[in-house]
């Protein structure tokens, strides 16, 4: 268990700047999730913590030591890769034990460690199989077991669940959360799935074009997004952005945002016509084209039988309004 | 429908038989001739009337043929071992590391293999003499690498490039050095490619004639192809076809055994990399 600190990290590949000016403090034992659009630099940032990539500028600290120039194996970190990256020619047992063997761990201690993590991840029955004989979910467990067995201070995950089907993903997500509690280890997790991010994270780091937009607990980011980008990134359907004229007190805002779930159909308010109806079971989403020309999403199931083309009025509470200035910063 | 399919299968089988006959008949005739003695060799039948081992005995006793086979074996095995060993590490560098002049170096290596053997023969001869390797098997091991190394390096480089980067990175995270990655992780994954290229290198070295003829002098240092070419009859007007056929059969059999032995891996090596699995 260790803290991780990034100071003024920048990364350039040739002349393209992929990460710029990233400062981040991760507490010991914390679960931090990096989220962002594809190409925002999540993997690159994670790989610099792992030591697989060298920052062009800045320092990386793990615990109290500056590890910027240390090789990956001396940083006390383990990584779980998106493709699992198991050694295809080795059995599950050999896969898990490979790192220990390289550290010249004794045979008995190694055997014991492998059994312990295999029990923890319920893969004892698979120990003598090769990766090719495992399902995707089982491979994922082996990959996690391999990461755990070396008892690292910091765990790094790069989209470990993205190759699993939806049901398995949800289940494994909970297991990873459980694992975090059991091991009380520092975990840094990369995903582009915001639900996964919100469910796992103690704190979320939202990356946009190589810099950090906002860092904070999921609820804070969701309810008090620091920028328009964060506001739009979190939530599905995405937040509705409207000109300040639609609200009474714009407070000098350049645009205002209201989440679909904060809007409802009412007797009076902004009027518009229903363009599309999404029936999702537990909820219903109405896409309404306002008279001003903007299309908004409204999460509301109060109407009995909404019809496309039907004229409705939409309203919201003042407390639900997010105000942003011309630069996209929260007011 | 069914009749059509049967016709198609039948046609395919017939075609294969024709191809097989075409490919195998020369070898079959060599085998048959090797069992014939004296003037019987000029009979045009498909089966020896009085099969005899006399040719085989003659080959083994008239000259140090066993020594020649051993020489060929030593040279071919050394060439394969050295080529694969060097090529594995070279291909790791070419396939994985980024360094200046990588492409240039890679094409230079390919370029080396493009010169016809005669073009480099005299130059090589000087080098061989300089190192005092004339009439020494080492000269052959050294010179054969000129044509085995380029293609082993090229083939292994393309295989190495196709190995998933994440596996290498996982090994790095596990604390593996470059040496460990190559020997413990990549080498087993490259096994099919190693078998294929190794076998091709073996065949090339086993059959090589020109260098072997030029760099060896005595019967005891000769390899098999040269020994066969220099088999002489009772008089200068007689070519001992029977002996030559027997010798050819003796040296072809090891190759066939090798190919059959590695057959499974060989096919895997020839097709791997073509389709992402
Ligand atoms: N080795 C490299 N050479 C050049 N550019 C690179 C390299 N690795 C990454 N990049 C670039 O850096 C940017 C960030 O890449 P990165 O892989 O960190 O994104 P990501 O946020 O992980 O995206 P994704 O969600 O698609 O995995 C991308 O624009 C990518 O093209
Ligand atoms: Mg990524």
Q: Could you please describe the fold and organization of this structure?
A:
The complex is a heterodimer of chains A (331) and B (277). By secondary structure, chain A is α+β, with helices and mostly antiparallel strands. Chain A folds into two domains: 4-232, Rossmann fold; 241-324, Nucleic acid-binding proteins (OB fold (Dihydrolipoamide Acetyltransferase, E2P), Beta Barrel), CATH 2.40.50. Chain A has eight helices and 18 strands. In chain A, the strands form four sheets. Chain A has a six-stranded mixed β-sheet, sandwiched between helices. In chain A, a hairpin with a 4-residue loop joins β14 (270-279) and β15. The longest helix of chain A is centred in the middle third of the chain and has 18 residues, at 166-183. Chain A is elongated. The relative contact order of chain A is 0.12. With 277 residues, chain B is an all-alpha fold. Chain B is built from twelve helices and no strands. In chain B, α2 packs across α11 (241-261) and α3 (65-96) packs antiparallel against α8 (178-207). Classes of the chains: A alpha+beta (331), B mainly alpha (277). Chains A and B meet through β6 and α2 of A and α7 and α8 of B. The structure holds adenosine-5'-triphosphate and magnesium ion (MG). Adenosine-5'-triphosphate (ATP) binds next to α1 of chain A.
List the helices and strands and how they pair.
The complex is a heterodimer of chains A (331) and B (277).
Chain A: E1 4-13, E2 16-26, E3 31-36, H1 42-50, E4 57-62, E5 65-66, E6 77-80, H2 92-102, H3 107-120, H4 136-149, E7 154-158, H5 166-183, E8 186-190, H6 194-200, E9 203-208, E10 211-216, H7 218-223, H8 228-233, E11 240-242, E12 255-258, E13 263-266, E14 270-279, E15 284-290, E16 295-299, E17 311-316, E18 322-324
Parallel strand pairs in A: 3-8, 3-9, 6-7, 7-8
Antiparallel strand pairs in A: 1-2, 1-4, 4-5, 9-10, 11-12, 12-18, 13-17, 14-15, 14-17, 15-16
Helix pairs in contact in A: 2-3, 2-4, 3-4
Chain B: H1 2-34, H2 54-62, H3 65-96, H4 102-112, H5 117-130, H6 137-162, H7 165-173, H8 178-207, H9 210-215, H10 224-229, H11 241-261, H12 263-271
Helix pairs in contact in B: 1-11, 2-11, 3-6, 3-8, 4-6, 6-8, 7-8, 8-12
């Amino acid at each position: 268990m260790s803290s991780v600190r990034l100071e003024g990290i920048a990364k350039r590949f040739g002349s393209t700047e992929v990460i710029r000016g990233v400062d981040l403090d991760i507490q010991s034992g914390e679960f931090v999730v990096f989220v962002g659009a594809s190409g925002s630099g999540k993997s690159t940032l994670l790989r610099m913590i792992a030591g697989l990539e060298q920052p062009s500028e800045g320092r990386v600290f793990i615990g109290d030591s500056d590890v910027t120039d240390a090789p990956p194996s001396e940083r006390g970190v383990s990584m779980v890769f998106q493709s699992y990256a198991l050694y295809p020619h080795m059995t599950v047992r050999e896969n898990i034990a490979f790192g220990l063997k390289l550290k010249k761990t004794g045979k008995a201690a190694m055997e014991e460690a492998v059994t312990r993590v295999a029990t923890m991840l319920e893969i004892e029955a698979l120990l003598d199989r090769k990766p090719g004989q495992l399902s995707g979910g089982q491979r994922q467990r082996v990959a996690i077991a391999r990461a755990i067995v070396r008892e690292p201070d910091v765990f790094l995950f790069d989209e470990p669940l993205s190759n699993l089907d939806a049901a398995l993903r949800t289940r494994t997500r909970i297991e990873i959360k459980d694992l975090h509690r059991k091991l009380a280890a520092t975990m840094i997790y990369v995903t582009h799935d915001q639900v996964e991010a919100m469910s796992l994270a103690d704190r979320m780091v939202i990356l946009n074009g190589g810099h950090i937009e906002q860092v904070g607990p999921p609820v804070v980011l969701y309810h008090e997004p620091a920028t328009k980008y964060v506001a739009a990134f979190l939530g599905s359907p995405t937040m509705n952005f409207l000109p300040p004229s639609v609200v009474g007190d714009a407070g000098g805002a350049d645009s205002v945002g209201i989440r679909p779930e904060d809007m409802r159909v009412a007797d009076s308010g902004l009027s518009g016509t229903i363009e599309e109806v999404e029936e999702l079971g537990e909820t219903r989403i109405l896409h309404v084209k306002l008279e001003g020309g903007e299309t908004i999403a409204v999460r509301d199931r109060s109407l009995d039988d909404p019809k496309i083309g039907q004229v409705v009025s939409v309203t919201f509470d003042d407390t639900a309004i997010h105000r942003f200035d011309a630069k996209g910063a929260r007011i | 429908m069914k009749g059509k399919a049967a016709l198609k299968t039948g046609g395919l089988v017939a075609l294969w038989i024709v191809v097989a006959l075409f490919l195998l008949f020369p070898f079959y005739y060599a085998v048959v001739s090797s069992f014939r003695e004296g003037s019987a060799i000029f009979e045009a039948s498909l089966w020896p009337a009085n099969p005899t081992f006399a040719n085989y005995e003659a080959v083994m006793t008239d000259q140090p043929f066993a020594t020649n086979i051993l020489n060929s074996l030593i040279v071919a095995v050394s060439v394969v071992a050295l080529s694969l060993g060097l090529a594995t590490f070279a291909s790791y560098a070419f396939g994985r590391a980024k360094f200046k002049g990588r492409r240039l170096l890679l094409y230079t290596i390919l370029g080396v293999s493009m010169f016809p053997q005669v073009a480099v023969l005299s130059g090589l001869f000087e080098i061989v003499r300089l190192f005092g390797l004339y009439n020494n098997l080492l000269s052959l091991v050294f010179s054969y690498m000129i044509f085995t190394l380029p293609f082993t390096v090229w083939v292994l480089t393309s295989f190495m490039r196709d190995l998933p980067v994440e596996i290498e990175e996982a090994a790095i995270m596990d604390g593996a050095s470059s040496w460990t990655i190559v020997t413990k992780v990549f080498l087993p994954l490259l096994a099919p490619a190693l078998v294929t290229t190794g076998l091709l290198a073996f065949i090339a070295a086993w059959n090589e004639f020109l260098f072997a003829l030029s760099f060896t002098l005595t019967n005891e240092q000769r390899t098999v192809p040269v020994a066969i070419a220099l088999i002489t009859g009772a008089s200068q007007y007689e070519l001992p076809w029977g002996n030559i056929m027997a010798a050819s059969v003796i040296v072809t059999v090891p190759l066939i055994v090798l190919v059959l032995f590695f057959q499974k891996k060989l096919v895997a090596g020839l097709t791997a990399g073509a389709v992402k699995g």
